[in-house]
Design a protein that fits this description.
alpha/beta; 5-stranded mixed sheet; D-Maltodextrin-Binding Protein, domain 2; single chain; 7-stranded mixed sheet
């Protein structure tokens, strides 16, 4: 699929998120006109873009540090407020977490990018979550979706095929467990990972019957605790009890979960499309395919989370603003976006880049074109506390310290607290 086919996604998205992060250790001090500091989530693709940028700008030195999302969320505001943040940093779209556009732009930490040529070309749905109070602060370069990513070789060895309904999913998990190869790797030692399975279930159970759920939440006409979020939570727990995941998800890291899925020790993993390239990096001969995670017994009612993905912002106090702006412009060029998309297995945020999507994403592109996608759930939430409560609450559910009803009630309390 070429990116000119993404019109349906623009119409479908009223917001978009899931991943981006930056370093806990990068310092922007001491920069000269030829040195750029960047902190980024470890996406498995940023180094390629940095190398291409350096090739296009001879003599430029780039000091790049990567880290996980959890570390970034704990430290980014502190580094920005103390003046130790890098020139360029990963920024989430929307308002859903401590590193999101609204959260960082509101106190003046990010440079206004509205005057960059690419800013005017962003699709409206992407522009909404790249802006704060009408100004663009986030160079959102890609579009992402969440689903079940299967290892075809592992499926063949187990003699199983991807399930097409919720009932088939549970049977699939039981049969996989009986063969000593769990269905899905789950690495929730990193707490951001707890949301991916839940979001994949919520897309169908909550938004399938009610595409206006977010508006009802904003208008005070709906709550998490008295909605189909309870159904999605119950299904998540049923998957765990049925043996859909490997033993001890809480002691399994995101990195370790990739190893399980790539090596065929599990049949797959529920993650964003970016995981495909990471799995291929660990198993270059492997065949991986992303499909919708069944959440009901009506395949025609399935929806997939799909939204604006990661982006880069410029530190308002960057030591090298000119070089930082040159970098984000490169990121948003066809060469930059295609480098990310090809390495991540994603989709560029702007049309006409000449990029052809990875065949592994054929079902995602079909859902996009058929207007069967919904935003990543957190992007329209009024503050980052809601997501943090959900993530920590999900870990506590898995450890037996709390229950779904209590977590959803706490999420409602944080949601009503506003910005």
């Amino acid at each position: 699929m070429r990116t000119t086919k993404l019109t349906a996604l623009t119409a479908a998205l009223t917001a978009g998120t899931l991943l981006a992060a930056c370093s806990g250790g990068t310092n922007a001090s001491g920069g000269d006109s030829k040195t750029l500091t960047i902190a980024s989530v470890d996406q498995g693709s940023i180094q390629d873009v940095v190398d291409a940028f350096k090739k296009a700008n001879p003599g430029v030195e780039v000091r790049l540090t990567t880290s996980g999302a959890d570390q970034y969320q704990q430290q980014i505001r502190t580094k920005l407020s103390s003046g130790t943040a890098p020139d360029v940093m990963s920024v989430w779209p929307g308002n859903g977490n401590p590193g999101a556009t609204h959260v960082l732009a509101k106190p003046g930490y990010l440079l206004d990018l509205s005057g960059r040529p690419w800013a005017r070309k962003l699709p409206d749905a992407v522009k909404t979550v790249a802006q704060y109070e009408g100004k663009t602060y986030n160079a959102v370069f890609g579009l992402n979706g969440i689903g079940a990513v299967y290892n075809q070789d592992a499926l063949d060895k187990a003699g199983l095929t991807p399930p097409g309904t919720w009932t088939e999913l549970l049977d699939f998990c039981r049969e996989a467990a009986a063969k000593k190869t769990p269905a899905f790797a789950l690495g929730i030692q990193d707490n951001w990972v707890t949301q991916t399975v839940l979001y994949a279930l919520v897309a169908t159970t909550v938004y399938g019957p009610d595409r206006d759920f977010d508006k009802k939440m904003q208008d005070g006409e709906a709550t998490f605790a008295k909605s189909a979020w309870t159904t999605a939570m119950a299904k998540y727990q049923e998957m765990e009890k049925t043996g859909c995941f490997q033993k001890s998800p809480l002691s399994t890291s995101y990195e370790a979960s990739q190893e399980l899925a790539a090596s065929g020790k599990t049949l797959g993993i529920v993650q964003g499309n970016w995981i495909v390239s990471l799995l291929k990096g660990k198993n270059p001969q492997g065949k991986f395919t992303l499909k919708a995670l069944p959440a009901t017994d009506d395949p025609g009612g399935f929806l997939m989370p799909a939204a604006a993905g990661a982006g880069y912002g410029v530190n308002a106090k960057a030591k090298n603003k000119e070089l930082a702006l040159k970098f984000v412009d490169f990121v948003m060029s066809p060469e930059g976006m295609n480098a990310f998309a090809e390495k991540q297995g994603g989709l560029p945020s702007l049309p006409d880049t000449g990029h052809a999507a990875d065949p592994a994403l054929s079902e995602l592109t079909t859902f996009i074109n058929d207007d069967r996608t919904v935003p990543f759930m957190d992007q329209l939430w009024p503050n980052p506390k809601v997501q943090q409560t959900m993530l920590s609450g999900l870990q506590e559910i898995f450890s037996g310290q709390t229950n779904a009803a209590a977590v959803l009630k706490d999420m409602d309390t944080d949601y009503r607290a506003g910005a």
